[in-house]
Structures are given as structure tokens and as C-alpha cells.
Specification:
The structure is a single chain. The chain is built from no helices and eleven strands. By secondary structure, the chain is mainly beta. The protein has one domain: Rieske [2Fe-2S] iron-sulphur domain (Rieske Iron-sulfur Protein). The structure holds FE2/S2 (inorganic) cluster. FE2/S2 (inorganic) cluster is lined by residues 45, 47-48, 50, 64, 66-67, 69, 82-83. Residues 5-101 form the Rieske domain. Belongs to the bacterial ring-hydroxylating dioxygenase ferredoxin component family. This is Naphthalene 1,2-dioxygenase system ferredoxin subunit.
């Protein structure tokens, strides 16, 4: 069964930015958009094992730092080669100023 778990304070993520979040042996990337929304995906690029929290957020996309592949971080859709496998996404929300994701 999925659980909501705390990631960080909302203010800890800059607007149009991403942070790394680890839980057990899993790793995630948690994003803040420009409209006050939060989003979560698997942390590692589906091309190679590179963490997307080191990548660049632009609008609703994340660009991988290694080969510049891109995903839509809201839908997980792979947008630009060399990535061709979509990224898994997770529900994210803000409660009392705390970002939570459901995993
Ligand atoms: S590792 Fe992400 S595009 Fe290659």
C-alpha cells in the first residue's frame, strides 16, 4: 500500500527547481513549478543511472545532466533523445507547508 511521506519544507525547494529525496533504498526527484505546485518522479534517468536532481528544470521539463535527454516531470513522458523510456511519476502535495509524496 502506498504511503504519504514527508520530503522537506515547501520553501526548501526553489521555484522551477528540483531536489533529491532518498527513502530507504529508493531515490526520487521532487520538483517545484512556477505556479506553486509540487511534483515527484523517480530520481534516476531512464537512460543511465544519473540523478535528475542534478539536472536543469525548465517550465515543465527536466533535462538530464549527462546527455541532455529531457522528460516532462509532470507526466513522466520522455521528450528528447537519448531518453526513450518514460519516467515514473508519483503524487505530490503540500500540507501545512510540508511537501509530501505518495510512494
Ligand atoms: S543518462 Fe540521462 S540522458 Fe543519458
Amino acid at each position: 500500500m502506498a504511503d504519504w511521506i514527508e520530503v522537506c519544507e515547501f520553501d526548501d525547494i526553489d521555484e522551477e527547481d528540483v531536489v533529491r529525496f532518498d527513502a530507504g533504498d529508493r531515490t526520487f526527484a521532487v520538483y517545484r513549478d512556477t505556479d506553486g505546485g509540487v511534483w515527484a518522479t523517480d530520481g534516476l534517468c531512464t537512460h543511465e543511472m544519473v540523478h535528475l536532481a542534478d539536472g536543469l528544470v525548465m517550465d515543465d521539463t527536466i533535462e538530464c545532466p549527462k546527455h541532455n535527454g529531457r522528460f516532462n516531470y509532470q507526466t513522466g513522458e520522455a521528450l528528447r533523445a537519448p531518453v526513450c523510456v518514460n519516467l515514473k511519476t508519483y503524487p505530490a502535495r503540500i500540507r501545512d507547508g510540508i511537501v509530501e509524496i505518495e510512494i
